[in-house]
Amino acid sequence: MLNLNFKKDLLPHAVAIAIFCLATVLFFAPVFFEGKTLPQHDITQWEGGAKELIDYREKTGEEGLWTNSMFSGMPGYLINVRFSGDLMKYVHRLYGLFLTYPMSTIFVSCLSCYLLLLVMGVRSWLAIAGGLAYGFTAFSIIGLMAGHNSKISAVSTMPLVMAGIHLAFKGNRIWGFVVTSIGLAIHLRPNHLQITYYLLLIVLAYGIMQLVSAIKEKTFPDFAKTSVILVVAALLAVGANFGSLITTMEYSKYSIRGKSELTEVGGVEAKAGLDTDYAFQYSNGIFEPLFLFIPNFYGGSAREDLGKNSNLEEALKKNGANRQQIKQQVSAAPAYWGDQPLTAPYYAGAIVVFLFVLGMILLEAKYRIWLGGLVIFALVLSWGSNFSLNYFIFDYLPGYSKFRSVTFAIIIAVFAMILGGFLGLEKLLSSDFNKQTQKKLLMAIGGVAGFALLCVLFAGMGSYRGAVDAQLANYPDWYLNALRADRASLLRMDALRSLIFVLLFAGVILALLKEKLSKGIAYTLLILFVFVDMFGISKRFINSDTFVRKSRQSEFQLTEADKKILQDKDTDYRVMNLLNPFNDAKTSYHHKSIGGYHGAKLGRYQELIERAIAPEQSQIISALQSGSFDFGEIGVLNMLNTKYFIAGASANAVLPNSTANGNAWFVQDIIEVTSADEEINAVGQIDTKKSAVIDESKFSISDQVPSADGQIKLLEYKPNYLKYSASNSSYGIGVFSEVFYPEGWIATIDGEEAGILRVNYILRALEIPEGEHVIEFRFEPASYTIGNTVTLVSSSLLILLLIGAIGYSFVKKEVLPQV
């Protein structure tokens, strides 16, 4: 039996778990006690796009793997695919105390940071405060509000991975291996590789720090041995997620994150990855990261509630606005005055910033360089287009160009500031409180509090003008002046708020150091101040009014337009919603849609949208506005079998298209081109019912002249299976209104495998001999089958290792684990 001292070894951890659980439940009380839900834009869109895959799973118990509900068809790997071999989901749920997802991610964040701080040597009561700071950071709360659940789930376990790595370098290699592998395995489950990339940067910087230390201390063999052990742990964690990772890697080559075959203007070859304009669309201004300390430094959000007695409210009253107009304007005012199209402040905490400054003064050099360097690097990355170095980083830092929304890099700074801050506080409380230590503490207080005070005193001196004001060009001067006065007021009040929290926290620390307060009272106050600081700002984004009672399905109630379309019992056609089709997946909930909502659609399809589909959409809208339109002119949308267009919610807003090409057809003419550029240019010029374009540099066909005298009929449809009958009097080329994807699709003609051709830039085609035939397409990607097997084996090993490590600790009569 283990000799455990309950008060020393168990009570602090039990209290920590209870506090984290209570704080999570309190924050999301309407979910836990009133049966309400948190409306999340991206989750609503995800539900629309995932509907076909979910329905297929519920009906058959199998994975669809492919869906035709979005963008005319795409793999379901990054939409909704499950791996039966994923046993780590049970460990993940247990680690989150089986709390409701995604609310459980906040609890997991708190617990993970708590464990990291313990491993780094921070006393448990201070680690509780650090856990709350990380769990309730605005980055996570804003992410949940938007529906970025996978991102926040990945963020929640970053500290756990770091805890395992540090445990190993402290010499506890068994538990270091186990915690690293388990932590990384559940970190990878949400498959948010951008956050994983940021974690890798943190770990690489830590590794450099340890390498330098090992060289100085002449302990390189120990460093090498530990590093090898951690690499094995990482490989095992990757193995436990091999299915999702291998399918994502396979798909990424063909998504908008991969390399385009098109060339830019002037014949310059296109680069792999995203375009900088797209990736840097959301970039912080140079001073904008000051929201880490003062949340409303740049006005807060683009739809800020100014509250009672604002300058804008008074100005609206004076200028004759009625009560309803005042409420609408004041409750969603464009208070943000930075350069981003849409944003909210990723507040790290006034107390956290103060502690981080303290840590940069007190900590030994290696930690100052590691954590301080991470903060600086994260700020630079978040500046995006506003800092020229980022264009070099984007082009040359391996893998970085695959990701957008560079402001997300601010989570690196949040992580480093919390860790550095609480390490600094522990250093302060563990040191002799002599004049030199007191001087360093007062330097930190003076610097941070002094900056906040300056912001309070001189808030009125800013211009409070930004790029967003271009949208307000037609507003009267009195409105703009009042709005800018409110922007100044928001900064001043939040600066005062931060000043108060810094002084209160610093006061408790001084009282504790001078033995004016007992440790119990002091620790309680420190935890309370951190919680109130973070909780208060987070409630600006998610509060009791945010939650709703309506079910998720109410977002997808059938409109009269939907009902009219669904009267067509031949459901194997596509629908295009002419109103914002490529950023809305609600149409996908009920129909096979031309559009959808996804951050990694197929690259060729995106190019077809830009070069052909969007222009045809504009052509339709312009013609309809003038009175009439000939649907026979839209060859690309017709080849995608777009049978209905939606121009509104009413039944009269449904536009049937009798000229759609159907599910499949024979063509009489094959136009051979030699490049992707020629192919995409040609597809918009041809009659897609009679002709098809093929890139002869990639696909070869028979010299026979194809005949269009035949018929192809769809007999059976499943997301991952299509069955057709074909009848033709002579050799022909059949074009199928299905998106071509080079991995996993297998075609057979009368049971014999046939090579799938790509025609018209995006569609599938087959060479079909004369006669009566049965044609089948099956989506059977080897990456999924192999990946699922590796996932099962690796996750089983991980669970056995966890059980073994616990058993070993009991045999050795050690506390689990030694930190």
Automatic annotation (TrEMBL):
Q: What is this protein called?
A: Membrane protein YfhO
| Keyword tags | Membrane, Transmembrane, Transmembrane helix
**Organism lineage string:** Bacteria, Pseudomonadati, Bacteroidota, Cytophagia, Cytophagales
Q: Which residues cross the membrane?
A: 12-33, 94-119, 125-146, 195-215, 227-246, 344-363, 370-394, 406-429, 441-461, 495-513, 520-537, 790-811
Keyword Membrane: yes or no?
Answer: yes
The species this protein was found in: Reichenbachiella faecimaris
